[in-house]
Amino acid sequence: MRDTWEISAAALRFETSQWPGLLEKALQRISRDLGLASSGSLRAELHNLLVYGPGQFFATHQDSEKHDNMIGTLVITLPSEFTGGEFIVSHQGEEIESRGSENRLGFMAFYADCAHEVRPVKQGYRVVLTYNLLMPTHIKTPEPSSETVTALTRAITAFWQTPATNRWGSGRPAQTPDRLVYLLDHEYTQASLSWKRLKGADATRVGALRKIADTLDAEIFLALADIQETWTTEDDYPGYSDWGYHYYEDHDETGGRNTSDSDPALGELIDDQIELRHWITPDGSLADIQDAHVDDAELCYTLATKDCTPFESEYEGYTGNAGSTIDRWYHRAAVIMWPRTRGFAVRAHKAPGWAIEQIATALRENQNDQARQWVAALLPYWPEAARRQTTPFHNDSTFDAKNSLLDPTMQVAANINNPSTAEQLLDPFMLTDLHPTSAPWFARLLEHYGPDWCQERLRRWRQNARYPSLQEKQSWLANTIFPLTQAMTRTGFDSARPMLASLLQDCWASFRTDFDHIQGYEPIWREQDDMAEPAAAVLALLEASSLARQLQLEQEIIEALQSSAWPFSLALGVLHAAASRKSESRKRLSGVHKHCMNVLAARLQQPARKPDDWSMDPPRGCDPTLAVFLRNPTQRRLEWPLAKPGRQIIHQFIDAHELPVTHETRRTGRPFTLVLEKTSKLFKHEANERSRWKTEVSWLHQAENNFSQDQMG
Description:
Blueprint: E1 2-3, E2 5-8, H1 18-33, E3 43-52, E4 57-61, E5 70-77, E6 82-84, E7 87-91, E8 94-98, E9 106-111, E10 115-118, E11 121-124, E12 126-134, H2 146-161, E13 180-183, H3 201-216, E14 218-233, E15 266-280, E16 299-301, E17 312-316, E18 325-339, H4 343-350, H5 352-364, H6 368-378, H7 382-389, H8 406-415, H9 419-426, H10 439-463, H11 470-489, H12 497-519, H13 532-547, H14 551-561, H15 568-581, H16 590-605, H17 624-631, E19 637-641, H18 644-656, E20 661-666, E21 673-678, H19 681-702, H20 709-712
Parallel strand pairs: 13-16
Antiparallel strand pairs: 1-4, 2-3, 3-12, 4-10, 5-9, 5-12, 6-11, 7-8, 7-10, 13-18, 14-15, 14-18, 17-18, 19-21, 20-21
């Protein structure tokens, strides 16, 4: 934000003939001071004239690069008498201040990534000319000395040959770095990042690295580096509120800069992430490389990221469970190098999806030897890389088959015609990595390697389960198990049926275990909740069992739906799902339809709750004292002296089950008293339930023909 008067360049005219020569002489010195290689190449384009009167200012900001070849800004302060209005330029922790002069010109030039501000003018007027500093794209890169190149060549060779342990002590064996990732000092944008327009010392260092890349036959790239670091902080500080939101203090009354730090003192580094993007090849073209991960062992720098100026910070104060931390985000750039002979392996380690696609293409083009060489280079990195890029399954509307790593891997495994290699490629995955699009490729694996080999893969995938959420597992069942069963049954392999039967039995057992488990932790109003997700999973299992001719499993599922151990709303949800999809399983659900009709009829025959009946069934695992209180039809309030650990358990239990009971602590006496009181939500819930039951009965009558075996037969 700024408050100043502006006159555009178009309205300005210089009548003295001395001005161009004066400006050219200044540009020659600026070119040297900024570390540019060739004097005379830097141009200044007039942008505007700014006049700051009393109280006017320009808040801290960075200039936008208004042209493709703009590298910075030149500010010329014209002689005038004023107080205040200090001009402050800062970069990576260093700061320069200019106050102007009554009788001399002042020159200040800086790169576009430098933050700068003008403090409020107190008296008089501050008048400045601003110029865009432009550098032609053909500027010559500074030549490094031969001694520098020789020393760096030895250092980089040793760097690639020396195993480096993980900074966090992961316990993994030490490995040599894949690449050299050298962070540059200056900040660049996508428009300004270019081999020929590097700033200051970056240009000299990168020039040396390019010579070394030629010497070592290494591939070399430029890229933008987006960095996030999370640090502990030594103590709280005044730049943030207790809740972690930014606020900013005013400057002191003397007009000097406020000396309080913009960030708290950093403690220990907790975590960091570096994402490389916008890769540029040595000829200036964009490289088709995607990389979202940089290992600690690959990283080198002259200027540490913590000493740079972040473009954003977010502070989180002490929470009670953890100390105060700060997240800081930075825009940097990097040079990336690796030996050309290891190019495929290096890229494969960082981008396994890209590597698999390259191998698949080679196999399609009958370049089998090349494909086998690439697979051999990929396998040492494959288990970790494949697990890092697997795609969690949510539902068929959010899953993007293009991001699935398993499908192209199955394609390669089927076409590689080597069961041992195919096994190594597929073993890192887990069962929920299979998607509907995977089914045809799994059928190909059946054809190539047989059911025993495929059954072993399924067993390994089940063992590899990395704790997917219940919703993910149910979504996977609902959307994958039936098309996968279809693909398997279409192979014509009768010997595949035992494998399919084992898979379906395992999926059903897993679903039952999960569903039984959550029944003890769900609210007592579970039947009001949306059962669409688990119902769709059960229906898919039922349809798959029928298709695979697993009649015993099919009957077991139907009996479970009619069991009193599970909420009948799951059975209702299965009926709704079957009716909406016109499922072939409808005729086998006639017993479930009848069961739901009987349950609802029995519930509606029960008299409505009396106005003075405050009883409710306690959830599973309820504390005995709480259970007695909940069952009591006349007792609304319980005052329960209870020590803190016991109170915490009751608080959590009531909240977890959403009981219609308030729970507060009266902090008198020893121990304190937990006061429980039943609320009118109990009656409101029952009235809503009875209304819903009537609606469901009406729907069941209308849908009766859909589930009649006579009608379906």
